[in-house]
Each structure stands twice: as structure tokens, then as C-alpha cells.
Amino acid sequence: MPEGEHPGGGRTDRARSWRALLVALALDNLGSGAFLPLTVLYLTRVAGLSLAVAGTVLGAATALGLLVPVVVSAVIDRVGPRRLVLLSQLVQGLAMLAYLTAGVLGTRGAAPGLVVATAGGAALLGAAGTQVFYSSLFTLVGATAPAGARDRPFAQVEAVRSGAFGLGALLAAGAVATGAGAGLVAAVVGNAASFVVAATVLTRVGVDPVPVARPGPERPVPPWRHRPFLLLLLVILLTGLATDVFLLGFAVFAVEGLRVAAWLPGVAVALLTAVSAAGTLAVVRLTRTWARTVTVGVGTVLLLGWAVSLVLAPVLPPGLRPAWLLAGAVVLAVAGLFVGTRVLTMAEATAPAAARGRYLATVQYAFNAAQVLAPALVALLAVRPWLPWAAVALAALVALLLLPWLHRILPTAAVRPPDDVGRNP
User: Fold this and answer.
1) pLDDT of 360-370, one tens digit each?
2) For the chain, how big is the Rg over CA atoms in Å?
3) Where in the numbering of this chain does the Major facilitator superfamily (MFS) profile domain appear (predicted)?
4) pTM, rounded to two decimals
């Protein structure tokens, strides 16, 4: 099937392509959920690396992977998003094979330098593939989804991905519970298989043709010169910090800082995943007639309230802290339902049609920036346990103040969804 064509071009074929994309994303995230939480354990228990070396290898690979979105943004509107998502599946599948090789080398007592080099290659392939995937995924969703506003399709994608990743994480917990390296190896093999099967399904996905930008006065403005779009990226960065800081720092804050039970952070993450999977479509239906900036504003207020609740947590009586923290995790999850889908839809609707891939690939840098800043904020736990959450609250407050300005300068189509967005097929 050529890139840029829906097979047959009919409505039925378009719906079939959309279902195939959702299946492929479910498979991808099922495998990733089973392996990503175990990556460090695999490198230490199976490949035999020290914790310090494993962390350094993964950190360096992640940093190098940040260079990928700029490459994707330069080519995606020429080669098409489906080819790039397929490429990401191939690269990540190769990463799993490299991880397996590192495990075999470590088990057989190969030279430590060879094991580290192989593990580093695996981590680099994985990081690069992941960046290609996220830099091209949302363009593929926009080009494949049923006709109409993209709020509901983006919500469907988020629900499928969250549910599949959560199920994969449960499988990962079972692999750890076995206490044997075989469970960790099985997670790598399963993830490799998920990429292969997902790629096979993706070959059945057709996409809309992308208009070609031609030289002249009507050539689309590059995203880095599009001021409303840059302001939207800043809002995405500021609101995205909350989840990244939570995932990195909450366990240390809760267990070591507040002395709650060690099981609580895992339950909090499970709640986050469950609410995201179950509530995304419901919130899209609830807010289908709201301005998207208003919806994001509600979510940002919830983010602000959640962050303030963690600032206050250390002064609460110890007996109240577990319930307080779990309730806060639910608030964070609900906030994400209001923010996540709508900011992506605003980005998709703001981008010029002939440069949509480049614009949506650039969005990945807002998420990457949040991921880079999050460890620095988590490090503030060593100064005062409430400081990271105060910083997140400040970021949410700034985003909240920027939203009225964003409402005025974004295109109307980006700010106001059609009334029937919640009823798209």
C-alpha cells in the first residue's frame, strides 16, 4: 500500500485503517510496558552490569536520542509518518535483539567492555527508535483518524496506549515476582515480538495524502518562527513537568521522606494508568463544546492543586498521609485527562497542512524538555522535600496565566472544537 493512500479510499477502508492503527499501538505498548520497567533489572541481573554502569549507559543513550526529533521533523513531510513509525518499530526490535545479546554475553562471562558496548548499543537503538516513534506518531494519528476534529481520535489513542502499557506493567511485575532471570529474558523476547507484530499490522494502515509545500510566498512558516505555536509548546512543557517529576520523584518522596509503606508508590502509578485508560474518552465527551484552552485550564488548575497538596503533605499527621497521597494521584490523573489530549489537538490544528509532520515532530521537544528538567527538580528533594512540588506548582501557575493569551492568538480552529467532536465515528 503506497504511503499517503487509504486502501480503496472509502469510508469503510478508512475505518479499517484506524482500527489497525489502534491494534498496532496496543501491541507496541503491551510489549513496552512489560520491558521498560525492567530495563535496569535486566542489565544488572542478566547482563551483569553494575547499577552505576547501567544507569550511565541508559542516561547517555537517552541524551543522544534527543537529537532524533530534529531529523524526523526535516523528513517526515516528504517520506510520510507511516514509514517512520514502521522504522521506529524495526529499530526498537533491533534494540531488543541487542539486549538479548548483551544478556548472553554477560551470562557467559564475556569481557566486561564488550558487554557494556553491546548494552550501550541496545540502549541507543531503543532511545532512537522511541524518539522516531513519538516524533511521527501524532502525525500518523491525524492522517489516519476518521474525518472531523482530532480530539476523540487522540483520546482513543491515549486510552489504548495507557491500558496496554498498564497490562504490560502487570506482566512485568509477574516477571519480577519469579525471582529468576528467565522472566526478565521473556520480557525482552515478548517486547521484540510485539514490535514485529505491530509493524506487520501497521502495513495495513493507510494515511491521507500530505500537501506538498512549494517555494514561494505561501510556503509554511517554520515552527520555530511561529510564535503562537511556540507559546503552545511552552504550555505543553510547563504542564508536562508534573507527570515526569511524579514518576521520577514520588517514590523517594513518599517512602523515604514521608515514611509511608513501600507499596504505596506502585499503587499510585497503577491508579494513574487506570484513570488515564478509563477516563480519557469520557472527559472528551464531557468537554466537547468547551474551548480547548478552557479544558486545558481546568486540568492545569487540578495540576496546581495536586502539587500544592504534596507541598503540604509533610505537615500532615502520619496516619493521614497514605490516603492523601493516593487521592492526590487520582487528581493528577484526572488533570492529565483534561490537558493531554487537548494540547495535542491544538498543536495538530495549529500546524499548516503542508508542514504538519514537522510541527508535530517539534512538539516532541516540549515533552523531551520536561523529561530533561524533571531530574533536576527531583534533586531538590535533597534540599527540602517540598521544593520539587513547589516548582511544579509554579510551572502550572505560569501555564495558567499564559492560557488566556494563547486563547487569543491561536487559530479559531485550534481553540474551538466543533460541537459534534464527541460523536465522531
Assistant:
1) 999 989 998 88
2) 22
3) 228-425
4) 0.81
